[in-house]
Structure prediction request, 239 residues.
Amino acid sequence: MSDAGSDEFDDDRSKLGEYEGGRNEAGERHGVGKAVLPNGDTYQGHYEKGKRHGEGTYRFKNGSKYVGDYYQNMKHGQGTFYYPDGSKYEGSWVEDLRQGHGVYTYPNGDTYDGEWLHHMRQGQGIYHYHETGSKFKGSWVNGKMESAGEYIHSNHRYKGNFVNSNPYGPGKYVFDIGCEQHGEYHQAEQPATGEENDKNMKAQRSPYPGSREGYLSLGGAEEVLLLPLYTTADEQCVA
Prediction:
């Protein structure tokens, strides 16, 4: 049985909001419909047995919007979420969480293209820094760079191991001119704030052009000042 615009089944309005669309024989929302929830959010799309199920668009009163697949009221499958700060996630969802492959665009223009688990960057992925054009390509654990990876800059790259989003241990710089510099990273970190960091900025940044090893920012979050102690072992150049 289908109903569109009738008040016959609107006794649930106080707890479920206003609804216009299809219903099944049990009076449940079923098929295509549009709902205005008590909190001001809206949903337009498919229902099954009273729950959002299939393709739909959910608009939050704070300006957020989700367009994609639902499974029993949960974001599940492929979908795009637009956040009120201007960021966007487009990719796979599992039970309301970013999970699987997806692309996240941050408010500052940075992007992450890779694997997710429980709303966190997890697995293999590429983080692109919009401001500099540099990229990090490698492994992620709980949203941070871990294990093997490489920073790719305009005229050189750094390949090595990463711990807690910082290069650590043996690694090498590979330059486009054919040279390699092998060495090892040991470093500490502290929040990058105030005049003290302004004074140290020049000294702590990597000496190589196009690099931002000295300062790391993911998605416009709080910057972290890295204090790299990079020990050079040898240099090799191809004639």
About this structure: Residues 1-84 form one domain. Confidence is low (pLDDT under 50) at residues 1-12, 194-217, 220-228.
